[in-house]
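URGENT: need a sanity check before tomorrow's submission.

F., can you look over the HTH luxR-type domain-containing protein record below? I want to be sure the sequence and structure line up before it goes out.
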Amino acid sequence: MLVSLGLRPLAERVYRLLLTRTDLDVKSIADELSVSEEQVRAAFDQLAELALLSPSWESPGGFRLVPPGVGLQGLLDQRHAELQSQQDQITETRDAIAALVREYSDRVPDAHHPGAGRIVGMDAIQTRIEILAAEAVSEVASMMPGGAQDPGLINAAKALDRRVRERGVDIRTIGLDSIRKNAPTLAYAEWLTGIGAQVRTVPSLPTRMLIYDRKVALLPVDTANTRGAAVQIPDSGTVTAVLALFEQIWDVATPIGTPLPKDQTGLLPQERELLRLLAEGMTDESAGHRLGLSQRTVRRMMAGIMERLGARSRFEAGLRAAQQGWL
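Structure tokens as predicted:
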């Protein structure tokens, strides 16, 4: 339950036990939890490292339990700060990569042969995807914004994914949280995990991307129109930067099959991201596009947030969200 704060399961069990039984020693705890004394000592070490146990002032060699309202809240604040720092890094990396893609696509010719940099048109892009997937030997990593996927595209993707996995190539995919509410796309994500792929989701994604064997990246020239043209990048420096962005987002994404976690305010990641996007001045339509949601869903979600804040207008909701630390 508290693993997201860095607390291992046994350490959490020991902590919970000590909240009601502070008189227990190591042997008693081991007996109560049916584990070894060595395991209990290791749990003590982790609790001390996380500042949930402190040395006792009264009993030399003893310990003092730090109350949850102090210790766990401190861990939660620290985790929140880490996530915010990761989000800032993702934003900076995304902007840097966008500049690199523009620079790279400007200096490569339009062409359709396998070694070309720029690929124009959806048919040519799909052909290039099939070629690169057939040549992959270790991993295909992808970020797929856009929310719900077209059933026709899902069927085509399944055939390609199956061939890739049959060769033993790893597949890692990041989609939007919104696909969890779209039955066909969720079924596709679950099908992927069933054949051994890994699928995770986040509230929003910076751009569509495909990375093959950590050596070649396929990115859209225009993130607003990913079907128009793409650029194939074999440059190691740029691919390294693109892969770093993927790994940053992968680390904070939630695996399919795992419920989306709420933060300390009770907000889901998607709700917090919606607040952030609207606070930046995005319209309902733009925010919905980024989150893979319809305008109607965005408005319904915002109405629910306003009700929880007790706000009568979006302006008031923004003020209250900021006052309560939601932004």
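My own read: The domain at 269-323 is CATH 1.10.10.10 (Arc Repressor Mutant, subunit A). The chain has twelve helices and ten strands. If you see anything odd, call me.
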